[in-house]
Write a structure and sequence with these properties.
The complex is a heterodimer of chains A (176) and B (519). Chain A is of the alpha+beta class and 176 residues long. Chain A contains eight helices and four strands; from the N terminus they run ααααααβαβββα. A four-stranded mixed sheet of chain A has the order 2-1-3-4. Classes of the chains: A alpha+beta (176), B alpha/beta (519).
Chain lengths: 176, 519
Amino acid sequence: MAGGSGARRYAEALLDIAAAERAVPAYRASLDALAGAFTPDVVRGLSDQRVPSERRRAAIEAATRSEPRAVRAVTSILQQRDRLEIVPDIARFFGELVDRREGIVKAKITTPIELASAQRDELVRDLERASGKTIRATFAVDPALIGGARVQVGDRLIDASLRTQLGELAREMASS
Amino acid sequence: MAGKSSEITDIIKAQIAQFEGKAESVDVGTVVEIGDGIARIHGLAGCLASELLDFGHNTFGLAFNLEEDTVSAIILGEYQQIKEGDEVKTTGRIIETPAGDELIGRVVDPLGRPLDGKGPLNTKHFQRVDVVAPGVIARQNVDTPVQTGIKSIDAMFPIGRGQRELIIGDRATGKTAVAIDTIINQKGQDLVCIYVAIGQKESSVAKIVATLDEHGAMEHTIVVIAGASDSATLQYLAPFGGCAMGEYFRDRGKDALVVYDDLTKHAWAYRQVSLLVRRPPGREAYPGDVFYLHSRLLERAARMNKANGGGSLTALPVIETQANDISAYIPTNVISITDGQLFMEPDLFNAGFRPAINPGLSVSRVGGDAQKKIMSRATRGMKLQLQQYRELAAFTQFGASDLDKSTLQLLRRGERISEVLKQPQYSPVRIDQQVAILFAANRGYLDDVPKEKVSDFERDLRRYIETQGKQLSDRLLSKPDEWNDDVENAIKKLLEDFKKAHAYGEQPKAQQPVAAAAQ
């Protein structure tokens, strides 16, 4: 989580600008694309001291020509300060901040068997009703759960799997 | 066997029938950094301060720092099996330790897990480890003494039940010995003792436990150990755990005594975990709240009033100084928190004055209220005489030929008093015998006894009280708070009779030839 707080501040500033320009989705798409492009290898190449800084700046400017103005500014500031490696963090924080603004939470739903899409929709609807937020769910299958389901909404984990209940029963019997 | 196994099946069936499967709803986070007994966890948005965290594999941690998106936790016990990316759950619980009579005679770790191989504890009660101390309304002044059995302490620095008396001094000056003697002297009495060893060598702790066992003191004692090889987390929790075990007795109207040996190492352990979770360092790199750490611990020692059961928890914290420097950071902190200190001095220790309590720098600020009347009257003025003697002794050590009579008398008296205050380890003295011997020294009954004969005098006097002085001894023990001319005269008579029966006085010059003639 190195540079976490720095990346968060850049993300917050960008979100303010994006909101003012009414272009939040465009900024998000742009940042996500850049996060994918600025892999550690690329970052290393762009901060290589053997290449004249003029040329490196020109390369970044060329690469970000079609991006929103504020994103272009951020990348050139980061290049000057030699902190291009935090671009993926900025994109991630930006995404989280946008989700929070719009009341979207991520949910991870793990079940022992594959759910039918009707079941999935129903589960997500129930969770949305219970939490009062829009849920963006990812689904996973883990046969070790045996039965029931394990749902994680944000930091909250609701564990209704058979595995946990059996473990609990074992613990209770051992302690009594 | 067949009958037994079907019984077991029935029990299991009943338990399964009773079991209610509930969906468990907890906060979760993931470990992002682990090492040095510290875990940084991402997530856990709903985590509470000091909450117990479940790392799986039966490993738990304590939420220490709550930050914007991470929680820093200190891990209790082993942490090798925890990996980056592991899931951590909140438990909604605060750390607890078992408490109760079942713990007496046991050696446990700060979380009450037995270490002595004597099987499980089977305690029914759990006590929170970190609680707020009782308030002013629930307390009262100390009014009952803790008899340490150590003459110099019981006479000059009496400790009351509910008091906090610091034992401070350099290494190897007999700090632990004072605490252990005090524990040994509680044998067959109503004071439950808890000895908390923090960051000590396991070998020294084993020796202490063996000593307590040998003197039959484990029957009323709990030993809590967080040794030098245990994690800093356990060392940090040890005194709080021991205190919680003592509070169980305090809150049930009983009396308990807890020894924290020592709080210097406790401060080190706390400094370590605080620096690892990146709390800002202050003076000597201790965190800013190291004073509060000890004040909130020692404040839990209290004498409760009648309405609150009338129990008490006495604390004897130990602090080790470096080169006699009591003005270092942690010593001054703890001195200012406690109700007095026993200052152990290496010079006295090396000169053979053991226990090596420095009478000038030691004080008991509240214990006087608790001292038994027979003791306070028998030793009245003794501390002053001793102080004057020590001042004079330093002044006259380069030649004392031309001193006036009163000065010589003062030196003679002081020498006898200091001699009487010497006491070997593991041999506590009962209060009635203390009163007799201290009265003798204080009122000049020893002035004509040669210095080197004082310990023989004491030994024989104690034996004499056991036999001839039974009546007086019973009177002193049954009414320790009554002192009148009758008692005083009875003690005087006993001493005079004893001196007649035993020839300790410096023999008159004429006696030598007489003895020779008789041969």
